[in-house]
Amino acid sequence: MAEKIDALAARYGREVAWHPYLLGAVYKVTGGVPLTGLPMKGEYALHDIVRSARYLGLPFVVPEPFPVATQHAARAFYHLQDTDPALARRFALAVFRAFFVDGLDISSLDTVKQVAESVGAPGDELGAAVSADAIKARLKAECEAALARGIFGSPYVVIDGECFWGVDRLPQIERWLETGGF
Amino acid sequence: MAEKIDALAARYGREVAWHPYLLGAVYKVTGGVPLTGLPMKGEYALHDIVRSARYLGLPFVVPEPFPVATQHAARAFYHLQDTDPALARRFALAVFRAFFVDGLDISSLDTVKQVAESVGAPGDELGAAVSADAIKARLKAECEAALARGIFGSPYVVIDGECFWGVDRLPQIERWLETGGF
Fold it and tell me: What is the third-level CATH fold of A5-179?
């Protein structure tokens, strides 16, 4: 979804507001569990995600370990977002690619810093930034906002109040943008 | 999926072997729960299923109650299948429409009989047929076969050993049929 949504939105004169949040924080409230741990469904899901990436023409490997903690990456995004939204977007995409293409462990702060530097962000200052109370509170508030909005999964897209969960809803998202709702 | 899969297969010179089974029997083993009962996700799912039907151009109402027990309908299918496969297929589609379009309670044997009669099957004999030990064993074996195959949900399609879960995988199914695998 991260690789597709900006270009899709732009074709219909729309912009995407990215909101990283922690799926784990939401799962604590909803009782959700990582898909990959479920009997039978987990095995299917791993196969399906790889096939879906091929279907969409996107490079993809299943990271190991998967899933991982993403609070450093999410906080770094919000830190960058406040000063340079375009840079934050490039960073977010680079983090997704580091994880889902290069198989890097993005739970590591060092990896997050290296990814930030690769897109031209000052990696060094991120170390302090992601442990600042204000940015921790910011991410916590984003998680609470997601929960309050009824958001239980990822990727999740809201257009004009209409909710779409999963990259497999891209065709419905496009129809929605085309028609203004269907 | 029931409304689309036969025509899609036929376009690629393939035939569909339908295998009704009981999702409840599978959930007992996998720990799965009906989607509609999950916090937040259940509410989304009900909205999504209605929107997905509109997207596919199919009439649909959320049945009430939903989900319901389907063993009468599934056994009736296998009973008809043994003597007239084309009739069994018409019956299956009619049961789906009775449930998902007309909102009838297909857990009722009387409803199953009426649906059978509406497609030209002898409703009266179904009453005895669905309580025969052989047909009960047949459905049980189908549920066990589904579990053994790793099938955890519905709709579920297997093509050349490749598994697809959910009506939202129709585009991938079509690509698979077009290309012989991707």
Answer: Glutaredoxin (3.40.30)
Q: Which residues of B touch A173 (CB under 8 A)?
A: none
Return the domain boundaries, chain A. 5-179
CB pairs under 8 A between A and B: 68
- A115 and A122 Cβ atoms separated by less than 8 Å: no
Does the pLDDT at position A38 exceed 90? Answer: no
Residue A30 has pLDDT above 90, yes or no: no
**Nearest to B160, CA basis, from B142, B141, B173, B145:** B173
Where residue B109 falls among pLDDT bands split at 50, 70, 90?
A: very high
A163 and B44 within 8 Å at the Cβ level: the answer is yes
DSSP string, chain B: -TTTHHHHHHHTT---------HHHHHHHH----GGGSTTHHHHHHHHHHHHHHHHT------SS-S---HHHHHHHHHHHHH-HHHHHHHHHHHHHHHHTS---TTSHHHHHHHHHHTT--HHHHHHHTTSHHHHHHHHHHHHHHHHTT--SSSEEEETTEEEESGGGHHHHHHHHHHT--
The ipTM, to two decimals, is 0.92
The letter for the amino acid at B96 is: F
Give the closest residue to B153 by CA, choosing from B2, B30, B70: B30
Question: Is A54 in contact with B182 (Cβ distance < 8 A)?
Answer: yes
**Facing residue for A30 by CB, picked from B41, B51, B163:** B41
Q: Which residue of chain B is at minimal alpha-carbon distance from A167?
A: B168
